[in-house]
Amino acid sequence: MTYHPKSDFIATMIERGFLADCTDYQGLDEALISGCKPAYIGFDATARSLHVGSLIQIMMLRWFQKTGHQPITLMGGGTTKVGDPSFRADERPLLGPEQIDENIAGIKKVFSAYIDYDSDAENKALMLNNAEWLDDLNYLDFLRDIGRHFSVNRMLSFESVKSRLDREQSLSFLEFNYMILQAYDFLELNRRYGCVLQMGGSDQWGNIVNGIDLTRRVLDHEIYGLTSPLLTTSDGKKMGKSQDGAVWLNAEMRSPYEFWQFWRNTTDADVGRFLKLYTELPVEECNRLGALQGAEINEAKIRLANEVTTLLHGAEAAAKAEATAREVFEKGGVGGDLPTLTLSAAELGDGMSIVQVIVKSGLAKSGKEAKRLIAENGAKLDDAPLTDAGLMIDAGALSSPIKLSAGKKRHALVQLG
Predict the structure, then answer these.
(1) What is the mean pLDDT of residues 195-220?
(2) pTM to 2 decimals?
């Protein structure tokens, strides 16, 4: 990892489009210029992998380390037991300790691709778990020492809470405590590690400000908050979602090819912005690529897909994904890294309907959706239009793999195992 002068961080955040707001630009900039400083972002363990929606925060931590500072990835082993109510319409399902630990183990795999935890440098990254200090809190002591610093009136004014109440949707006491626990995280990280900065999405602004106020009241320390915009694509869709669900970062939940393909399918208007946020290409090059028109923008999208996939899965995986895509789309082949459905002879029996096969392959979520896909001429079998929803697939039909397509951009292989 190449390091830059310590004063580059805020300039990088502004130039590349990461910055939504900061509690004190000048104070933070002066603190960072003075030497290597720790900063953290918290990640709750609600699933076995983070998805693309978290990638903007991961890249912020990466840039923080590249500019000479110490990133802390804080795993929410404690706060996940409560659940963040920020801008949610309902309460998160509660997870047990074993599931939370499994999720943390899955999430940890991603971070090491972006952040250096192993060097001997002053800014070696730390991975911590807030269960370390939250699990053993004494409730009465916590209320007396920490709870007295929080104003319920002020907490009710935060947009993340206010929006729930305005819609007359229930906000449990359990969830209401989340912002107190997150504020306490910042206090503990400052006390234990000298952490001076919490970063997060703009939906975390209220929680971050609470932590700053609490730390000032209890320790009289000056600390800072910085948020990134909540990203949507140019057509208004939430970042991290695709036609077939969340774009997970763990390879076992979304293959490198599918990950690459997600970025290759970026809308033209988003290419320049995504290059600045999700790659390390110089800003001038990002702007040049993003301004391309016509067929040339497709090469910019391939560059985006290669750069982002290389950071997460490595250069070899990115090159393999590009080669597979070119074979599939340019040569009409089946490729070597497409999502693959393997069916046994026992599963097939006397035959399985093409509708079931399409659902099992992941190209449709239900039989109804698969039938509609066929009826609307959106399905292909080995690149030929598929028009018969009653077609049966047996072992003979799978003597060699078949290629199924849904539209122009989603494909899967089906083979006999």
Answers:
(1) 94
(2) 0.78
